[in-house]
Amino acid sequence: MGSAAFNEGLFAFLSRATTPFHAVEAMAEALGAAGYTALPEDRSWSLAPGGRYYTTRNGSSLVAFRLGRERTAGLRMVGAHTDSPCLMIKPNPDLTRHGCYQLGVEVYGGALLNPWFDRDLSIAGRVSFSCQDGTLGTALVDLREALAVIPSLAIHLDREANSGRSVNPQTDILPLLCLPGDGEEPALRALLEEHLRDRGLAPAEVLAYELNLYDTQPPARVGLQGQFITSARLDNLLSCYTGLRALLDSEEGEPGLLVCNDHEEVGSVSAAGAQGPFLRSVLQRIAGDGEAFSCLVDRSLLISADNAHAVHPNYPDRHDGNHGPRLGGGPVIKLNANQRYASNSETSALFRQLAKQVAVPVQSFVTRTDMACGSTIGPLTAAEVGVRTLDVGVPTFAMHSIRETAGSEDAPALCRVLRAFYEAPEPLFPGADSRP
């Protein structure tokens, strides 16, 4: 697949995947179309050699895998996360103040808040409701239209706005939805119930929801030569899509797995997160408990794919001078001596070898020693499962902003390396049995 076609598919995925629920729905549909069989977690699994399967948890995390002819072969695993920093709508959100109807929100993850001002916002997520017959129903919703905005305070009323404005997340980022007339009492639940009825559902009452705001501006290829892509949720849906395409486009001789976890941006401690039991339970059902599981894990490798910080030309001093990835320079191996990333010399060498085979340049990132280092699902999965792990990512600007920027060639390049990884023959680490 060429870069243009890859990015076109990525843009379609980003536009649809406005929440982790919608991301998993889109990936499940692509897997089903490619012949992967859905496996409900609450049923017994009957796995056949060479079979292709996927399962989901909470509707927001997914594991897809294909088996080799030999059940003892190691798994080539790619991991990413489905969630992104955003504004979540509170359970009792309705506010009418000074003639304006607004919603109460809370911040999910480490979001950059200033870019949320003056954007055209919509609402998406999961809604649970009672039906007319007394049963419970659940549906994904995406209102798609620009329904809300968070207006900035004019500079005339804040003369220090360009030098010292801070954002109070309780009071400053309440989105504006309408100007209600006399006697009107707008309510989010009523809006949701109307939307569900328009879709042919029959809600008696919306009982609960998980909803977030998102920017309606579509992804774009920008720059004088089209060398950048800009979009919401590049961190980390770009990696989800890249891993999915690599799995589906690779030759199927070797066993492979894709895991996309929710809740990375808030610590991963959940039933569906990387520090939860989801991946381990799938691997145990593939291999069995005890010694078979341990052997499978030791023969396997996880590549954790999560965006990396590119050197911002306006802030080059925020990087170590020898470890500043560039946009357009290829995928980045992320390293940290204190295990904030799980890469080591073995896993890094294998990735570099695979990249060389497909003519993809590789960069490295080490944070400045005097700055705190972020982390990924890599170390968490390594600790939870015990699998060798590598942390890589596509270099990115404005990570955790409402709109992020990456190079237009870097995700396709990472996809080529991941495809080579999925196709790599046994053993992944030649000579590993002779290690001391």
Features:
globular, 26% strand, single chain, Aminopeptidase, alpha/beta, Aminopeptidase i, Domain 2, nine-stranded mixed sheet, six-stranded antiparallel sheet, 436 residues
Quick recap:
The protein is of the alpha/beta class.
- CATH superfamily placement of the largest domain: Zn peptidases
Strand order of the largest sheet: 1-2-3-13-4-14-18-16-17
Mean pLDDT: 94
Shape: globular
Q: Evaluate the radius of gyration.
A: 23 Å
Helical/strand content category: alpha/beta
How many distinct helices?
Answer: 10
CATH architecture of the largest domain: 3-Layer(aba) Sandwich
Q: What percent of the residues sit in helical stretches (DSSP H or I)?
A: 25-40%
According to CATH, what is the class of the largest domain? Answer: Alpha Beta
Cα(first) to Cα(last) distance is 42 Å
What percentage of the residues does DSSP assign to strands (E)? 25-35%
What summary fits the major beta sheet?
Answer: 9 strands, mixed
**Number of structural domains:** 2
- What would the CATH topology of the largest domain be? Aminopeptidase
Which blocks of ≥5 consecutive residues have pLDDT under 50? none
Give the ordered list of helices and strands.
Answer: HHEEEEEEEEHEHEEEHEHHEEEHEHEEEH
Q: How many runs of DSSP E, i.e. beta strands?
A: 20
EC number: 3.4.11.-
Pfam family, one: Peptidase_M18
Cofactor: Zn(2+)
GO biological process, one term: proteolysis
